[in-house]
What does this fold into?
Amino acid sequence: MTMKKIAKNIKFEEALAELEQQVQLLESGELPLEEALAAFQQGVALSKVCMAKLNTVQQEVEKIVVTGDDDDEYELEAFADLED
It folds into this structure.
């Protein structure tokens, strides 16, 4: 089993589904050592793709925050700023 190339435009859901397949293959315990290593490497690459896509989305998420004494004043606050 050779490591498949991951498409640059793969969607998060597709990458996650492929990652789950790799995990199932590894958990089955039926792969020869070389194929298990290739499945592991593919899983690592897919997990990096998933994390990169999640990080991108996280940076785009914003929260509306009340800024004044009355509820009519709002501002957008970046998701990353909410972690403080």
Summary: The helical segments are 12-28, 33-60.
